[in-house]
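Batch manifest, entry 17 of 40.
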Amino acid sequence: MSRKKPKNQVPEPVLRRLPWYLAYIKLLQARGKEVVSSTYIARSIGIDPSLVAKDLSYVNIVGKTRVGYSTDEMVEVLGKFLGFVDQHKAYVFGCGNLGAALIRDKGLYQYGLDIVAGFDTSPEVIGDDSLGVPIYDMADLDLRAEDDVRIGVLTVPVEFAQEVTDQLVASGFKAIWNFTPFRISVPEDVVVENLSMYASLAVMFNRVSSMSHGEL
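Output type: structure tokens
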């Protein structure tokens, strides 16, 4: 069954481009640039200028004719619109190499994701405080209900992805950032964002191979 999109929902391709604009505008802002045109943004990022203007219309950022957009306004409005200004608490499930790296990544906090704890099943990992947040036993997940965390970052081995997902759903989690290559199944009221590094590798390898064959 297909999921119905809420009215006025911003298209996903737009949502994926808006952080590009924000990151780039932050660089310009740091360099002291006060205004920037859609053409300048588009040329620097490598997309069509009309697309920039259309994307920004979703967040009610209006530029001045022959002047451009205020960088200060863009940083403020985009940050709020994308949810990067507020802090959203999250747990990491699976604290191996990838999970540990995400916990250590302070950049995520700057973009609104506050990882407050990790969960694992390995006795060697549970209780380890070297990552800067507590690491709990998966069996104790329900005991952490008072933390009011509803976002789960999934970095478990692929064979446990659905099992852990079912635990998160049963515990009331409403959003899962899935780093596993397994396409997890969830109820319609749970948001899933899949980020498969393996799929990205496949695309990159395929394109490199195609380019190499084309040069022969």
